[in-house]
From TrEMBL:
Transmembrane segments: none
PANTHER family: DIPEPTIDYL PEPTIDASE FAMILY MEMBER 6 (PTHR42776:SF27), SERINE PEPTIDASE S9 FAMILY MEMBER (PTHR42776)
Pfam families xref list: Peptidase_S9
Alphabetic keyword roster: Hydrolase
One MF annotation (Gene Ontology) recorded for this entry: serine-type endopeptidase activity
Stored InterPro entries: AB_hydrolase_fold (IPR029058), Peptidase_S9_cat (IPR001375)
Name this polypeptide is given: Unannotated protein
GO terms (BP aspect): proteolysis
Residues covered by the Peptidase S9 prolyl oligopeptidase catalytic domain: 366-570
Amino acid sequence: MLVRPGGQWVSGVVSDGVSAVLRMWAVDGSDTVDLFVDGPCRGRGLSGGVHTWADEGDCVYVSTDARGIVEVTLRHDAVVGERSLAFDVSRSWSTPAVEYMNRTVYAIADWKELWGCDIANGEPFLVHGDSDFALDATAGVDGSCIVWNRPQMAWTESASYPERIVSDIAVQQARFSRNKGSFGFIDDSTGVSNVHILGDQIVDPNISIIDHCEHGAPTWGPGQRTWCFNTDGTRVAYTRNEDGYSSLWVFDRVTGSRHRIGQGVHGCLSWEGNTLAALRTGARTPQQVVVYRLNNLLEPQRTVLVRPADSRWFENEVDVELVEPSVEQAPGNVEVPYRLYQPHRPHGGLICWIHGGPNDQWQVTFRSQFTYWLSRGFAIAVVDHRGSSGHGRDFMMSLNGHWGEFDAIDTVNVLRHLQSVHGFSAAKTVLMGASAGGLTALNATVLDASLCAGVVLKYPVVDLVAMLHSDDSFEGHYMPLLIGSEIDAEKRSPHRNAHALANTPILVFHGDQDHSVPLHHTEQLQDAVNDAGGNIQCEIFAGEGHGFRNPVYITREFALTEEFLYSMMKNAR
């Protein structure tokens, strides 16, 4: 999502899960224009990376599923033409960027190479292909991007090409102001991912917005934009991750003043003139497009420009079920943060939910599945075990060599805290996790099965030995850093400890086309638990991958999970 130069329109990709369209909305709500309907790419979560505007606002360049990078031309506010640039259409393209003379478009190919293409004669050329990974093209005088090499990930050790990678520093979201006079980025050189602005003609010395909290999240995909310049580079908008909650701020580079603009998790920040736009969400706020009019920083005016298409999210009976979580800490050798959602009509049931990644975090965003279970009386605890992002570099990196161990220990500590302090019963507690979260849920049960009455999993990581030798193109190389030795992997693989799971009911969902965590993980778990005399129910969804899309399967997942949970609740009486 971006503000079109001039500040009168906001553009973004809208998708119903099947098709997508690049659309723009007038900031005064008066009009809507479809810019491109022929298969624009779709961003991930609150990220973008799909399109960019030329500086005059008369052309937009969009990454597409089948046509590479397409130039769409406008006259006034209407589309008058389009053409495909000469990028190789057999490759995957992301984050187009236009250099300051509007002569060259840069883009990333297959998350590996930075390419440029001359807008006038259409000749593409390779700019950088010597790094193992490349993401988020940037255009100043020449092309730039974020790069990193095996065995690291973008959030553990990376740089803004052509700068060299520095050990133990991760860089993300390098960008220029639209007038190309100012440059900045986020890095974790202070131990926390904060915004840094290089000195320029506006403010001579380098400036760092030093905070105790993170300004960015791990680079799981292209186009994350949790900070941005205004048009002339004099001000910076940025987000603060406050124990999973978030707020939006503006920093004035000239005066050094900071102004809190809004509450909620914001992404896709874009600022032109006095118009700051963002995707915004929260525990009680379904994802929406908002614009802030910043004529006066002391009195920012927020307008909701686009809401979800389904009006039922705004009906009173739904709103009653939406709750804000409290931020808690489970004591121990390491204090473990978690967020606790309490339903309005509780019956004592508790879902302890563990995020995937494992280097990730579930911030306080709108999650329809949370609303579903809260409406049915279940409390929900979301665990930030060691390795989670949002709490500084040291906390995230502390899982290295101990995945499957420290995360499970931390989850057990949270369960004990929930039961001793908040009064939840183990007989009414279920652990839930998907992917890496599934591994953590299983290993927490192995450590102390008395703390929960059941486990619900989606495509769980089970075989750490297989993960240690994974050929996954994005993060397979990272597994040895996370896991450690083959002996460690063997010891922490849940199916090797099936005897400790035999008395705990387990429900597992897995797609047979999952290439990130192949089906054999669940098959090995099923065989091991059955051999140990345990109770495991496995549901295999044909054609599904790492994340379910078929509405029939999603409905079945919820129905079977609900049946599982109420069986647990019935047995607890």
